[in-house]
Amino acid sequence: MREELEKKLFDEFPLLYNRSESTSFGFECGDGWYEIIRELSKKLYPLVEVSHTIPNELDMYPTASQVKEKFGELRFYMNSATDDMYDLINHYEDVSGKVCEVCGSPGGIDYSEKWLSARCFEHRKV
Question: What is the mean pLDDT of the chain?
């Protein structure tokens, strides 16, 4: 994902994407999933904020630890999360397989190459 899109996510959701944690490597996916990741982040953020109000003996609060593409779908890993957070993550991971990772248009998993990817018709490798 382009650096300016990553920066928007870091700036808008600072508790979810802690630059000092392992998300400092950035987002390992295409720009087409920016809106999916942003929508997921908007829904996760209130849950993450609540977790910060609860004393935690380990000082370990939910943050994204890795965001990437794998087998043509979004993978969104957190260092810890509630069941509600995992339900949201699972939903958006499923949605990602129907959205082109390149441009964000409707698409599907492209099986034409050895590497699975979510692509629209225009961006399929044929």
Answer: 90
Q: Which residue in 123, 119, 68, 122 sits closest to 97, CA to CA?
A: 119
pLDDT at 58 (0 to 100): 58
CB atoms within 10 A of CB 38: 15
The three-state DSSP-derived secondary structure of the chain is CCHHHHHHHHHHCCCCCCCCCHHHHCCECCHHHHHHHHHHHHHHHHHHHHHCCCCCCCCCCCCEEEEEEECCEEEEEECCCCHHHHHHHHHHHHHHCCECCCCCCECEEECCCCCCEEECCCCCCC
Low-confidence ranges of the chain (pLDDT < 50): 22
pLDDT for 57 equals: 64
Report CA-CA distances (Å) from 119 to 5, 102, 105, 125: 20, 7, 8, 9
CA distance from start to end of the chain: 23
Q: What is the pLDDT of residues 61-71, one digit of tens each?
A: 899 999 999 99
